[in-house]
Amino acid sequence: MKQIGFIAAALLASSALLAENVDINGDFQKITKWKTADGWLNTDSRGRAEVIREGNRNAVRITLRENSGFNTFRRMKSVPVHAADRVTVRMTASGKGILGCGVAWTKKGVYAENDQKWFHLTPEPKEYVFSGALGGRGEKGMDGFIVTAILIPEKPGEKDVFLKLDSVTLDVTSSR
């Protein structure tokens, strides 16, 4: 019986070793000449994204324009995955509003379908986690994903809605 427990523990440990941390500039240290986070894009004109300096670190602050319904901030490079691969996005963030932490599944690098977990932001930084797999989307031709942070107000017309992203990490656990 002890051998079965040992084998199960060894299998779990080896599957954890298959998780690969993917560099997505989630600490926002790489900055473009336009003073934006390299590889990230504010894909909607409904909000303003800016890199802010806090001590020796960078963060991104996204401010929603008044009477806007949402804003999307994305890591623009699609990451390839297989159907059973597990994707885990961790965002350390604070703010006012609702955060959609997740991914936009892609087909040949082009956005096809969103998948988020929704959280009420708090004034103090907190870790928010999305985990999911491509699953049956692979049968529709989807083959990768883009990391996304979506900001929406808690109530229509709400003012001073913002998101401060301190960091974003991405792990992909291979099914192979």
Describe it.
It is a single chain. Strand 8 and strand 9 form a beta hairpin. About 7% of the residues have low confidence. Strands 1, 3, 4, 7, 10 and 12 form a six-stranded antiparallel sheet that branches. The chain has a single domain, classed as Jelly Rolls. It is built from one helix and twelve strands, in the order H-E-E-E-E-E-E-E-E-E-E-E-E. The radius of gyration is 18 Å and the shape is globular. It has 176 residues and is mainly beta.
N- and C-termini, Cα separation: 28 Å
Order of helices and strands: HEEEEEEEEEEEE
| CATH superfamily caption | Galactose-binding domain-like
Number of strands: 12
Supply the number of structural domains.
Answer: 1
CATH level 1 name: Mainly Beta
The number of helices is: 1
Mean pLDDT score: 89
Stretches with pLDDT under 50, minimum 5 residues: 5-17
Radius of gyration: 18 Å
What is the CATH architecture assignment? Answer: Sandwich
Structural class: mainly beta
